[in-house]
Amino acid sequence: MDKTQNNKAWFLVLPVLVLVAFSAVIPLMTVVNYAFNDTFGNNDFFWAGLDWFEDMITSDRLHEALGRQILFSAIILAIEVPLGIFIALNMPKSGFWSSFCLILMALPLLIPFNVVGTIWQIFGRVDIGLLGHTLAALGIDYNYTNDALDAWLTVIVMDVWHWTSLVALLCYAGLQSIPQAYYQAAKIDQATRWSVFRYIELPKMKGVLLIAVLLRFMDSFMIYTEPFVVTGGGPGNSTTFLSIDLVKMAVGQFDLGPAAAFSLMYFLVILLVSWVFYTVMTNLDRQETQ
Amino acid sequence: MSEITLSKLAHSYSAHPTGEADYALKELDHVWQDGGAYALLGASGCGKTTLLNIISGLVRPSQGRVLFGDRDVTDAPTTARNIAQVFQFPVVYDTMTVADNLSFPLRNRGMDPAYIASRVQRIARMIGMEPNLRQKARGLTADAKQKISLGRGMVREDVNAILFDEPLTVIDPHMKWELRTQLKDLHRQFGHTMIYVTHDQTEALTFADKVVVMYDGRVVQMGTPDQLFETPAHTFVGYFIGSPGMNLFEARIDRTSADLQGSTIALGAAYGPIEGRAQIGIRPEYVLLGDEGLPVTVKRVEDVGRHRIVRAVLAGQPMNAILPEGTALPADPRVTFAPGKINVYADDWRVPPLLETTA
Q1: How many angstroms away from the CA of A86 is the closest CA of chain B?
Q2: What angle (nearest 5°) sits at the alpha carbon of residue B225, between those of residues B224 and B231?
Q3: Which of A131, A167, A171, A288 could anchor a disulfide with A212, C-beta 3.0 to 4.6 Å?
């Protein structure tokens, strides 16, 4: 007997499709439209072809922002991943203090991005901020509004404060899934602390670490709100990352065409890097299995 | 290698045990002789694993001492005890090759590379994994991983004891038999003390010279498989060893006979007065069905291949009997008990006959 084919269930997906179309697909197509046209208002569009893309690819301003962005993401990952692992390894594994630490760690993740920015903007001010004022009192010349290095340090420390918890919590979950017998076997084998980490904990954390690195890379590569609130991209252009530059171009200068072309390339770069990263990691996994 | 002595040992997982029920392991004195092959047999949750972890130092006992030879190791950490342990589920270092897994305990102890290489070869041959030595451990089956665990447990020659915590749970049945045989060979070759925890009586009886039966946190009997079968010291042993377990009947004991609700059975030995709840136990193998003896009501006959199990009722109490192949069930079945095979229990513990005590 033939099974009755009934695909009416597809209609149930329709509301989501409509929602996604209005919230993502149509706005994206508008951006695509702007990227290939020029306009002087009144909804009059002139075909511009790939001009805006050529402009953007050869733009020094974009190259500099991209360079800063890559440096920022690299520094963020280099600090947050090892630090997150370290914190996860040293968190209590059970009891009251374990819950206490978990809640404490989750707190920064719950704070809205611009609030984080505001907290640090005030915290670092030399005149009234706890950090800025203390440093000044200690005779350290710190001023994130004047000094590019100070601005970078502030933005990096802020991001580490905000996001290391995520890495730590993911690693903690990975560590909790290791059966006790592994640690017992390691004791019996007289494994050193380093061997336990290298051969038991790290391999078991690999899956969550992959996700943590991917999330932190994407997030840091798209970072906007916090540094914008703290430094506004300055001093000069020193903390102007890709998003900040993009907003300046689109909203500040109203260069919609170049900004749209920029957006598309930005989106594709993140997509490409994430895809390459994910493919390489999962392939490594497969090779090891065979 | 040395004798392992447990002296007045007890363990409770609660910090302030109030009564005996709080103890996972009730007070016991026990000596594991150097070079013995022991099986620790009991139902799940009877304290087997706790006892094993106390010996290996993963758990510190709430009271009592653990001695290796003359050395008190109660407070010594696992690393200082020189013990090997194989766990219930495979514990392998996934990212290492099979060879690195096997050599890991030796490398950590700074052994000579040439010695390590030869030792790894030997163990690999024993567990049948020579062709896989260069392979990473993560892609292997659960069987293979457990074999690596076993191999890693046996790679060191100088261990005080090798402890096995139900190591063959995840292994295929045909591999089980083979590995058990290999363990036994190994025991003969190297003479390590081996303690093998299991809840499978076949595994225990085939592996060990001495079987230790645990029940409810207590060692109820230690003996050869034969002793456990013929003279179970506790009704639990009678019930747990054998398939089906020993038949137990509430009875009144009167020196040389038992009164089973009006029917009299000769015990074949003399007993003193019994205090507490009196029972007699007889193995189904020693229940003879025929035309003589006490009448029974047969409920069901199960054919298990090499023999048949007769489920019946005798004097109002359930009874199992084994009917050898080719024997017919009589039309009016009656039973007699093989002489000298009846054990008498008072409050679940075996009461020796009078002659046995005087001898």
Answers
A1: 21
A2: 85
A3: A167
